[in-house]
Amino acid sequence: MSNIPSELKYVASHEWIRVEGDGTVTIGVTDHAQDLLGDVVFVELPEVGAEVAMGDESGVVESVKAASDIYAPLSGEVVEVNEELEDSPELVNSDPYADGWFFKLKLSDQDELNELLDAEAYNDLCESEA
Amino acid sequence: MGNKTALYDKHQEMGAKLVDFGGWDMPIHYGSQVDEHHKVRQEAGMFDVSHMTVVDVTGTDAKEYLRYLLANDVAKLQQKGKAMYSGMLNEDAGVIDDLIVYLMTEPGVAGEWFRVVVNCATREKDLRWMSDQTASFDDVALTEQPDLAMVAVQGPKALELAKQSVSESRATLIDQLSVFQGLESEGWFIARTGYTGEDGLEIMLPEDEVADFWQALADAGVSPCGLGARDTLRLEAGMNLYGADMDETVSPLAANMGWTIAWEPQERIFIGREALQAKKEAGISEKLVGLVMESRGVLRAHQKVVVSGVGEGEITSGTFSPTLGCAIAMARVPSATADQAEVDIRGKLVPVRVIRPSFVRNGKKVFD
Asked: Which sites bind substrate (chain B) (predicted)?
């Protein structure tokens, strides 16, 4: 079974969200998603300063097997991207919830947080897809 | 659930992720496809290829039958155990399958026979076709060998580590094998062939012995590798994958298989010869080439290739090359394509270099 930390929030497109408490969130893909993707070889991230809306395509993860879009799980401004991924895309596989993070958003609508899944709901979703 | 090879329990024990492959539950990787790829290029890896179809061809007409069935000419096999790569064509010169054929005896002796290894995904149509073609011959028998397991051990250390994992007489045999030759030892057929671009062996042995052999190889330091790494390795080596790079709608001349067609002697009739000759005379409009993309991203099968001023083509196999650290592909493009093209990646045209379809051999980059 894949690792689903209880302190994080999730969306059905397999991104995780960490609410930082200062109006920003950190976003990455789940352990389940990286396992499905296989070895990640490139990550294309949005530009810092870009405005994204919930559900927008905001990047691409390319694994040896397939290309997969990254969707913005919330709306806001991109304030930081994980530049480590340029040279070490394999961090997405080895450490999806920490060093393998993708980008940080400054939220434009805090209410959207209510739409996210908790760990239990995300776990149920993964099991229903299996 | 699909068919299981005799190594199924070993795969589970070694942490394989299993996927369906032509009706078989096969390992795609044991953790990391890229790590397994590097193991084969740098040391040694082993693959369960027991799903492949082995057919023995016997009878006094065996040789003449194969000379008719295959585009390459088995009469060129002049040493016991020598192997040959060939296409098996239909009357229209489309590729029914590609295969390896081994001469199992001394050439020309009474009882001369051959072993053919074809793809698993095409097994049924191949067997039907091969069986149909025996009708014009008095004495030829086809015997499938479903009880043989097959393990490929590949990489610069493959021979050395395989020798440590087998009996003394088999180790001696491994020492004697030339490249592209396979011989029998104590009920095992050991061949110096493969699908990775590295030195190595493909070993066919009874199913009930394969788990112990697999474990012995693992104990000697050979890494288990899945079909994922097998695909990136063969693509780097520029080896075709049936169903991706060619099929029944594609002429071998448009699939970089021209070298496998034995036009001489001219009096040899083989299936597809006439159609092939006509295509050759009409001029071949397409060719299979290699693509290298230096920018970020990964080339994928079915992406469109745009050749400025010439026309369009399509990627037949694409991947990220772990050895080169960039994307590579095989593509079918107009024959007039020179050394530059562009690939449509999600609506964006990205420049690629066009080269001969061969990227890595024996651990080294093979193009400039």
From this structure: 202
